[in-house]
Amino acid sequence: xxxxxxxxxxxxxxxxxxLKDSSxxxxxxxHNCDTLAGNSGSPIFNRSTQSVIGIHxxxxxxxxxxxxxxxxxxxxxxxxxxxxxLWQTSDQTSSFGPFGDNQDILLxxxxxxxxxxxxxxxxxxxIEDGYDFIMIRDGSRGIRRITGKIFETLSLTTPATISFxxxxxxxxxxxxxxxxx
Length: 181
Fold this sequence. Notes:
Elements: E1 2-4, E2 12-14, E3 19-20, E4 28-31, E5 43-46, E6 51-59, E7 64-68, H1 72-87, E8 93-96, E9 104-110, E10 118-126, E11 133-137, E12 143-146, E13 149-157, E14 160-165, E15 174-179
Antiparallel strand pairs: 1-2, 3-4, 4-7, 5-6, 6-7, 8-15, 9-14, 10-13, 10-15, 11-12, 11-14
């Protein structure tokens, strides 16, 4: 998994990727994560252990590559910060909004939990119907796109992300996500 801010965009997460055989590459890691210009320097995470395993260096038309992290002490601080901001779900309820135009925001990420992979959330939202969207992606590779004014209970498989995307005009008021399991 790679996290970054490519091309001055909001936080972008590429998490459906794998390492490749890197025996022929001097940089040490080859991967097939989706990346864009500006992802260089982004941390490469092992999704199941939630630890930094490398730094993305670049790519070409055929492959992406990075440098393996050998000095774990340097990355301990970065891992702790990311764990607190992205993977931890200590607050059961999170509210977001109002939203502006042309926003793409990662609202919540529920970390992978091998002992209890399924979670239940309640989502309440009042966003511009048909123009602004909530994208929900869960560990079973299911993607769901919802819009409008709703109050719904959903079952998800971890890891799961919930993100918001708005168009160039109009306004969306609020999204509230409550973990209820």
